[in-house]
């Protein structure tokens, strides 16, 4: 069984989402010691954002030679995702949504004919056999019913995009980490407890 672990926070070891995603992976490895883990740090080795040349090549146009490394990186990211049984993602909220590094990765795995298709009945997800667990961290409180809920475009976006490709993701949430030290400490502790109690792979 293979697990793909992704982090997208720019904060390094100070990142809450990184700490929680690592705890999720540790929990799953303890439950399944034979689990094969592939790690990708989207800030240390970022994928380029999509360009017109990349999209044209994906639609069959001749690719310029200089696009070769980008296309190879794109294929590698997609292959990692397709071969994984479990995907664990650390996703902090930046300006109400996902980090641009994570968006660049999503643009490489949301591929027609690979992870979704269009048919007479509309779009169909093709990646439904995977388990996706996402550790999200948010500076304030954006949960359902909160005054700032309308500004929440992190969890809602990830739920939508993974749903589009056939996956119902699981979320572990650390909220209010910028409200104050005690709020950060409690949010992190609660998220780590949730990670430790995850069902086995």
UniProtKB/TrEMBL annotation:
<feature type="binding site">
    <location>
        <position position="9"/>
    </location>
    <ligand>
        <name>FMN</name>
    </ligand>
</feature>
<protein>
    <recommendedName>
        <fullName>FMN dependent NADH:quinone oxidoreductase</fullName>
        <ecNumber>1.6.5.-</ecNumber>
        <ecNumber>1.7.1.17</ecNumber>
    </recommendedName>
</protein>
<keyword id="KW-0560">Oxidoreductase</keyword>
<dbReference type="GO" id="GO:0010181">
    <property type="term" value="F:FMN binding"/>
</dbReference>
<dbReference type="Pfam" id="PF02525">
    <property type="entry name" value="Flavodoxin_2"/>
</dbReference>
<dbReference type="GO" id="GO:0009055">
    <property type="term" value="F:electron transfer activity"/>
</dbReference>
<feature type="binding site">
    <location>
        <begin position="93"/>
        <end position="96"/>
    </location>
    <ligand>
        <name>FMN</name>
    </ligand>
</feature>
<comment type="function">
    <text>Also exhibits azoreductase activity. Catalyzes the reductive cleavage of the azo bond in aromatic azo compounds to the corresponding amines.</text>
</comment>
<keyword id="KW-0288">FMN</keyword>
<dbReference type="InterPro" id="IPR003680">
    <property type="entry name" value="Flavodoxin_fold"/>
</dbReference>
<comment type="function">
    <text>Quinone reductase that provides resistance to thiol-specific stress caused by electrophilic quinones.</text>
</comment>
<keyword id="KW-0285">Flavoprotein</keyword>
<dbReference type="InterPro" id="IPR029039">
    <property type="entry name" value="Flavoprotein-like_sf"/>
</dbReference>
<dbReference type="GO" id="GO:0016652">
    <property type="term" value="F:oxidoreductase activity, acting on NAD(P)H as acceptor"/>
</dbReference>
<feature type="binding site">
    <location>
        <begin position="15"/>
        <end position="17"/>
    </location>
    <ligand>
        <name>FMN</name>
    </ligand>
</feature>
<keyword id="KW-0520">NAD</keyword>
<dbReference type="GO" id="GO:0016655">
    <property type="term" value="F:oxidoreductase activity, acting on NAD(P)H, quinone or similar compound as acceptor"/>
</dbReference>
<feature type="binding site">
    <location>
        <begin position="137"/>
        <end position="140"/>
    </location>
    <ligand>
        <name>FMN</name>
    </ligand>
</feature>
<dbReference type="InterPro" id="IPR050104">
    <property type="entry name" value="FMN-dep_NADH:Q_OxRdtase_AzoR1"/>
</dbReference>
<comment type="similarity">
    <text>Belongs to the azoreductase type 1 family.</text>
</comment>
<feature type="domain" description="Flavodoxin-like fold">
    <location>
        <begin position="1"/>
        <end position="196"/>
    </location>
</feature>
<comment type="subunit">
    <text>Homodimer.</text>
</comment>
<dbReference type="InterPro" id="IPR023048">
    <property type="entry name" value="NADH:quinone_OxRdtase_FMN_depd"/>
</dbReference>
């Amino acid at each position: 069984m293979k697990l793909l672990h992704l982090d997208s926070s720019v904060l390094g070891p100070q990142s809450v989402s990184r700490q929680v995603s690592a705890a999720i992976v540790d929990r799953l490895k303890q439950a399944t010691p034979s689990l094969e883990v592939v790690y990708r740090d989207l800030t240390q080795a970022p994928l380029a954002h999509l360009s017109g040349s990349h999209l044209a090549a994906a639609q069959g146009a001749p690719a310029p030679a200089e696009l070769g490394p980008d296309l190879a990186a794109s294929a590698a990211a997609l292959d990692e995702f397709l071969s994984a049984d479990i995907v664990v993602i650390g996703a902090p909220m930046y300006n109400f949504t996902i980090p641009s590094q994570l968006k660049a990765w999503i643009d490489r795995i949301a591929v027609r004919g690979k992870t979704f298709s269009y048919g007479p009945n509309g779009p169909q997800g093709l990646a439904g056999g995977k388990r996706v667990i996402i550790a999200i961290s948010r500076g304030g409180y954006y949960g359902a019913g909160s005054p700032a809920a309308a500004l929440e475009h992190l969890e809602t976006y990830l739920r939508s995009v993974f749903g589009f490709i056939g996956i119902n993701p699981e979320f572990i949430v650390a909220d209010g980490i910028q409200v104050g030290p005690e709020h950060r400490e409690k949010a992190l502790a609660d998220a780590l407890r949730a990670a430790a109690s995850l069902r086995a792979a």
